[in-house]
Amino acid sequence: MNLSIxxxxxxxxxxxxxxxxxxxxEPLTREQVRAQLVQLEKAGYNPLADCPGECPEGLRxxxxxxxxxxxxxxxxxxxxxxxxxxxxx
Length: 89
Prior knowledge:
Layout lengths: L1 H19 L9 H13 L12 H21 L14
Helix pairs in contact: 1-2, 2-3
């Protein structure tokens, strides 16, 4: 019975990120779902951990960390410059 609970939790953990990131009109591929799960695990989320009642909170914390990391990566190069430059005057 313990194995079936862990298997059900793991299946739910794989599907939750798919729904959390399902903002595009295209369906996600298996590779995309796996990549998102790897990102969440690197951010501290453990889908196979015994959850004493804070499983959704742990997932939310990991998602927030991933979003922050993506925002930092996007801001690392600064904003897009759409102007013109004249030199030599």
